[in-house]
Amino acid sequence: MRQGKLTPAKILPAHVRLTRQAPRQLDTDNLSSSFKAMRDGVADALGIDDGSGLISWCYDQQKRKQYGVLIAVGWGPDE
After folding, report:
1. Closest C-alpha among 22, 16, 6 to residue 75
2. Which phi and psi angles does 40 have, rounded to 5°?
């Protein structure tokens, strides 16, 4: 459980990778669309708009029998 809201000045810039796990793979435009709600939720948890240049987004997918999503967040300047 999160204790209080994270402050953007302390955690940004951030790099977020969203990985979709599913039996069937999607093409790239449908893959990015499938993450709309998750992207909004991650940005909300970080206390910033999802369109901000302070967050870079990367989408990936893995073929799996069961559905799931992996969310990885990295901090600091892009290298």
Report:
1. 16
2. -60, -45
Q: What is the pLDDT along the chain (79 residues), one digit of tens a residue?
A: 455 555 655 667 889 999 999 999 999 999 999 999 999 999 998 888 999 888 999 999 999 999 999 999 887 655 4
Closest CA to 20 of 63, 77, 73: 63
Query: What pTM was estimated for this model as a whole?
Result: 0.79
Query: Residue 15 in contact with residue 78, Cβ under 8 Å?
Result: yes
Residue 55 neighbours by CB under 8 Å, 6+ apart: 12, 13, 14, 15, 16, 42, 43, 46, 48
Task: Provide the strand spans (E) within 12-65.
Answer: 14-22, 55-63
C-beta of residue 31 within 8 angstroms of C-beta of residue 61: yes
